[in-house]
Amino acid sequence: MWPFDASRRNRWLRRRFPIETDLNCPTGPASGYFYLDYTIDEDGYRHSAYKAYLPKEVALARQARLTVCTGVVASRLELDVDRRIATGVYIKPAGSRREVEFIVKARREVIICSGAIGSPQLLMLSGIGNAAHLKSQGIAVKHNLPGVGTHLSDHHGFPIMMQLPMAESLHRMETSWWYAVWQIVLFIWNRTGWMKSGTTTSTIYINTLNLDPETSTFSPGPGDPELDGSLPENIPDLEIMVIPAGAIVGKNPGLPLFTLYACLIQPSAHGSIELASRDPEESPKVHYKVLEDAHDLVVTRRALRFTLNLAEHFMETSGYQHPVKLFHAPNADTGRSWRDLDDDQLDSFARGCIQSVLHLGCSCRMANEENGGVVDDQLRVYGFSNLRIADASIFPKIPAAHTMAPVYMVAERCAQFVKSAWATV
């Protein structure tokens, strides 16, 4: 659908990238150029988890035993420490100044699905977490579990952007109202056009250890063991999303930009989450620790050199009548080659523009309790037999992939665990 998905892509990617149309193919290469899957239904609309798991007809069919509370926040859990169970959840109206709470009692289980930031916050507000931190916030310790809020991981990206002819960028719809209307008409009429797709239809996954340090090119070829996707050592540590638009939100509106969005997807540095107060509506403190690990800086330099090399190759072979130029890059103002950039220049650029890809996880990770774990292999919080967590916070390690589908997998497994636990009751 985008301009470089045909002839330009073929010229651009002739550096021996394996091309895989099925990202989930079990025999596919570990590294290469991949087409991404989307949760789009047959009518061209986004099919969210809400639509997939709780459509209107399902909600109505279960209304006698299903209650959905909107406009509230979970403020803390009710815990029976002696019996080692969670007995309920306290909720309060969101945004209300009134100090009023209601309790929802649990007959069997409580399952927390508040995400990598919200789940550890709720545990700590309930007295589950590092005892010293809880005491500093005036919270009674119900269970000392030091792993809560630690090992926070995320994918971090830095955009390399080029300026293209206006007709080749999504930003054309910003500057031409008639073209935007035409795309809307195409979607309404026969579900085609730019409105049917997301911004990122393809991506590159690479293990940077397989990059030639002299030429910053991908060296393995067909049949090489480095492409075996079944080997853990071949897990990619770099993703480069191909985006026909700018990738810095709110910046450069109307400019026809194209982004190679390089992302560290196996960072070594881990952050943490702490309470800012006992107010459940106050955001907790998030300590990110981005690029504070020396290994992450090494991978970042490899990633930037490789991405800049790709960008230069694209500019040389794009075939556009008008020249393509770097717009946002460490050498955008100087015009120098990626080969002329030293480590300090690359580090400075990365620190100045690195962004969260919003794939946070691992803050209530599945691991042994003595190794900083918060949940066991049945997703149960240590110390409580009927309290589980089912979201990205339980990942033992951040996946080298977008986190939506893995979260669905966690939820499906949690449902199986619960059904098995109560099958004979």
TrEMBL record:
Q: Which domain of life is it from?
A: Eukaryota
Q: Name one GO molecular function term.
A: flavin adenine dinucleotide binding
One Pfam family this sequence matches:
GMC_oxred_N
- Listed PROSITE patterns: GMC_OXRED_2
> Active-site positions, per UniProt?
H359, H402
Glucose-methanol-choline oxidoreductase N-terminal domain location is 115-129
Give the family per the record: Belongs to the GMC oxidoreductase family.
What this protein is called in its record is Glucose-methanol-choline oxidoreductase N-terminal domain-containing protein
At the highest ranks, the source species' classification is: Eukaryota, Fungi, Dikarya, Ascomycota, Pezizomycotina
